[in-house]
Design brief:
Layout (H helix, E strand, L loop, with lengths): L1 H6 L1 E5 L2 E6 L2 E7 L2 H10 L8 H8 L8 H14 L1 E2 L3 H21 L7 E7 L9 E3 L2 E5 L9 H19 L1 H9 L3 E3 L2 E3 L2 H4 L13 E6 L5 E10 L1 H6 L16 E12 L2 E4 L7 H15 L9 H14 L12 H15 L2
Parallel strand pairs: 3-5, 5-7, 9-13
Antiparallel strand pairs: 1-2, 2-3, 4-5, 6-7, 8-10, 10-11, 11-12, 12-13
Helix pairs in contact: 3-4, 5-6, 6-11
The structure holds zinc ion.
Zinc ion binds next to α6 and α11.
């Protein structure tokens, strides 16, 4: 470990640092407020959010029928919630990144990107979560100040680096998702009514994956994971905030498993009946839990299941005791994930 550090040569100038190690380079760019806004805007981040998603982030009911107004309002909100980096915040994030690079270098070097951006966000931008935009990791700096959270930031960075890797390596992503029974489809038609109710996750690159699981009679079903707002719960708790002062909204999201109808040409449509019946659902959920094992607690998005599983493997580098709770199936899955990322 110490040897790797001695191989890293940092050449710093404002905002950008080029790291050279072991014949490779990583250019790390801490974007200032204006550059960060431009970076996010160029990624069409707002265009990909529908009215419900923008309203939730703003914590405001948008009733306008003017789509351009919605996008503009969201962009204004983004601009207001991006910050310049201060030296201390950069220092903490740097330290966490160095630790992550050091471990990834042996564990899964493919996850170390050539170029990486960091964007400093307020706690409101994405519900105080870390998230990615293209090759940028957005860091809610409220979690940076307590030094105690240093290792948390490193874990988050490893998790977000997985999202960036998955974004730019689609064939690998498909193979990784398949480990958890998610199969790539050409099209999934959710229908307008359902689409307006679906919650976006900026780290999810595509919704075109079919979850293939057996139902109660051991018949293979084509299923679709959807996250929707639990409106009664949300409305009853409107304005609830976490101890850090951010809107605490994750409790108001519900995961749904919907049945798909195969309409040919690797295309699917959400069945009119909307949901599999509850008896089947219990069995499907149990099967889904079994597939995920103890590697991930996320049941909302294939991308997050993979990112969590990868991060679990990453954490075992320092704490091999974590593997003690794993089943043989979990260990095999971890090996398959690493094999695909390493390419051997
Ligand atoms: Zn994630």
């Amino acid at each position: 470990m110490i040897i790797l550090f001695s191989l890293i040569v940092g050449c710093s100038y404002p905002g950008i640092t080029v790291y050279e190690y072991d014949g490779r380079q990583i250019t790390v760019n801490f974007l200032d407020k204006d550059s960060a806004f431009e970076y996010i805007q160029n990624s069409n981040y707002s265009e990909r959010m529908n009215r419900l998603n923008i309203s939730l982030r703003l914590d405001e009911d948008l009733n306008s029928i003017d789509r351009k107004y919605e996008v503009k309002t969201h962009e204004k909100f983004i601009r207001e919630n991006i910050k310049d980096w201060d030296g201390y915040e950069k220092h903490i994030v740097w330290g966490a990144l160095e630790n992550a690079i050091e471990k990834l270098e042996t564990f899964s070097p493919a996850l170390i990107p050539d170029t990486l951006f960091f964007i400093n966000t307020s706690m409101r931008l994405e519900f105080n979560a870390f998230f990615t935009v293209n090759k940028a990791i957005c860091v809610p700096s409220s979690v940076v100040w307590p030094l105690l959270f240093g290792s948390l930031i490193e874990k988050k960075i490893a998790h977000e680096l997985f999202h960036i890797y998955s974004r730019y390596n689609e064939p690998k992503r498909d193979s990784l998702y398949a480990i958890f029974n998610f199969v790539k489809a050409d099209t999934i038609i959710a229908g307008k009514a359902l689409s307006t109710k679906m919650i976006n996750n900026p780290d999810v690159h595509s919704n075109n994956y079919v979850l293939s699981l057996e139902d109660i009679s051991c018949e293979l079903k084509n299923l679709f994971l959807v996250v929707k707002l639990n409106e009664p719960k949300y409305n009853n708790n409107r304005g609830a905030i976490s101890f850090l002062g951010a809107t605490n909204i994750f409790d108001f999201f519900d995961g749904h498993i919907l049945e798909l109808e195969n309409i040919g040409d690797n295309s699917f449509r959400v069945k009119d009946s909307i949901s599999v019946n509850s008896y089947e659902l219990a069995k499907i959920k149990a099967n889904f839990d079994e597939v995920c094992g103890s590697l991930s607690s996320d049941r909302f998005f294939a991308e997050e299941i993979l990112a969590e599983s990868f991060t679990f493997g990453y954490l075992t580098l320092e704490d091999s005791d974590l593997l003690e709770d794993c089943t043989t199936q979990d260990r095999e899955k971890l090996q398959r994930i690493l094999k695909i990322i390493r390419g051997y």
